[in-house]
Write a structure and sequence with these properties.
single chain, about 350 residues, alpha+beta, Phosphorylase Kinase, domain 1, Aminoglycoside 3'-phosphotransferase, Chain: A, domain 2, 5-stranded antiparallel β-sheet, 9 strands, CHK_kinase-like, Aminoglycoside_PTrfase, Kinase-like_dom_sf, transferase
Length: about 350
C-alpha cells in the first residue's frame, strides 16, 4: 500500500525508499520502485539512492528527519564551496519536509579505486590534483567567515578533539577488545590524549573538508576530480585534510620520504594561492600530531563499526595498519610514551579479525 505524508504520519516514520518514491511521484518522475537503486552509505545516517530524473539520473540523499533548507549543513557548505569554485556536485532539488536532497550524479568511480589500477604517472597527477583542492578549500576560509557559513562556526576545538579521542578509548579498548585498563594506566593515557587535543586545538585554524579521503573524491564522466561528503566542514589545523588524504584507510604506512614530498608540494600549493607561509619543519610536527589524533579517531570508528554494528568486513582490516601509522608518527615525535606503550603492546594482537 502506498503511503503519504498526512497530519497523523511523520515523514521520518516512512521508510526512506518509500519517501523517495512519493517525492518522485510528486515531481513528475513517477517510477517503479525497482528503478530506485540503493547506494552503499559509509557509516552514515543518510540513505543514498540513484534515481531516474527527467530523462537522466541523479543521486538522492534521504535524511532521517525533515530539515529546514535554510540551515542545512550540506546545502550551506555546498553553496560556499561552489562560490569558491570548488568542484562539488550540483544540488538539483530539495524537499525539506521529506528530508530529501537531489544532486548531480557523479558516477561510481572513487579516486580510491582509480589509484589502485593507475600508472605511477597518473597516480602522481591525481594526488597532486587532490592536494591542490585542499589548498583551494583553505583559500575559501575568508569567504566562509564573510558568508557566516555554518562551517565558520564549527571547529576542531579542544572539546571536539577530546571527544573523538574518548570515542577511540571507549570503542578500541572496550567495545572491540573488551579490556579495562588499570586506573593508573587509564589516567596516564587520558592525560596524554587530552594533551594532544589541547595542543592541536591551539594551532592556527583554517577551513577543512574534515573527511578528505580518497573515497570522498569522485572522478566524474569527464575525468574531473569532484568533492563529496563535505557537509561536516569546519575550521581546523592546516594539516588536517592532507593527513586524511594521505593516511586514511591505508594498507601500510607510507615512507617518510613520500610524506615529506607530499607536505612540501602542499605548502607550495598553498603559497600559489596566496596563503600564509608555514615553516616546513613546524608543519611536519603539526602533521604528525594530526596523524596521531586523526588515526586514533579513525580506529575508534573502525572499532565501533566492527564490534558494535557488526560491519567488520568493511572496517576491521584498517585497524592494524592505522595503528602502525599512528605509532610511526609517535616515534617520529618522540612524545606521548603511554599512548606509544599501549599501542605497541597490542599492535601484534589483531583481535579485530576475530570479531569481524
Amino acid at each position: 500500500m502506498k503511503q503519504s505524508v498526512s497530519s497523523t504520519t511523520e515523514p521520518q516514520d516512512i521508510p526512506a525508499r518509500e519517501r523517495l518514491r512519493l517525492y518522485l511521484e510528486r515531481s513528475g518522475c513517477a517510477v517503479d520502485a525497482s528503478r530506485i537503486i540503493a547506494l552503499t552509505p559509509d557509516a552514515s545516517v543518510r540513505a543514498y539512492f540513484r534515481i531516474p530524473w527527467h530523462g537522466a539520473t541523479a543521486v538522492a540523499a534521504v535524511y532521517p528527519e525533515p530539515f529546514d533548507p535554510a540551515t542545512h549543513p550540506f546545502l550551506d557548505v555546498t553553496q560556499l564551496f561552489a562560490e569558491a569554485g570548488l568542484p562539488v556536485p550540483q544540488v538539483i532539488a530539495v524537499e525539506g519536509e521529506l528530508g530529501i536532497i537531489v544532486q548531480e550524479d557523479l558516477g561510481d568511480r572513487q579516486l580510491r579505486n582509480l589509484l589502485e589500477t593507475a600508472s605511477e604517472d597518473e597516480r602522481e597527477q591525481r594526488l597532486e590534483e587532490a592536494i591542490g583542492l585542499i589548498a583551494q578549500i583553505q583559500a575559501a576560509t575568508e569567504l566562509a567567515y564573510a558568508r557566516d557559513s555554518i562551517c565558520s562556526r564549527l571547529a576542531f576545538d579542544e572539546a571536539k578533539l577530546s571527544w573523538e579521542l574518548d570515542f577511540f578509548y571507549q570503542h578500541y579498548f572496550g567495545s572491540l577488545r573488551g579490556e579495562k585498563l588499570s586506573d593508573s594506566e587509564e589516567r596516564r593515557l587520558k592525560d596524554e590524549l587530552y594533551e594532544l587535543a589541547r595542543e592541536l586545538a591551539a594551532r592556527p585554524r583554517i577551513l577543512c573538508h574534515r573527511d578528505f579521503h580518497v573515497s570522498n573524491l569522485m572522478v566524474d564522466q569527464r575525468g574531473r576530480l569532484r568533492i563529496i561528503d563535505h557537509q561536516d566542514a569546519r575550521m581546523g589545523p592546516a594539516s588536517y585534510d592532507l593527513v586524511s588524504l594521505l593516511l586514511d584507510r591505508q594498507k601500510a604506512p607510507p615512507s617518510l620520504a613520500e610524506l615529506r614530498e607530499r607536505r612540501l608540494f602542499f605548502l607550495e600549493a598553498r603559497a600559489s594561492r596566496g596563503l600564509p607561509t608555514i615553516d616546513p619543519d613546524e608543519f611536519a610536527r603539526e602533521f604528525r600530531l594530526t596523524t596521531v589524533q586523526r588515526g586514533l579517531k579513525a580506529v575508534g570508528t573502525f572499532s565501533c563499526q566492527t564490534a558494535v554494528y557488526g560491519r567488520g568486513r568493511a572496517y576491521a582490516r584498517f585497524i592494524r595498519p592505522t595503528l602502525e601509522i599512528v605509532l610511526q608518527a609517535l616515534e617520529w615525535l618522540g612524545r606521548f610514551p603511554e599512548i606509544r606503550r599501549q599501542i605497541a603492546a597490542r599492535i601484534k594482537d589483531p583481535i579485530e579479525l576475530e570479531v569481524s
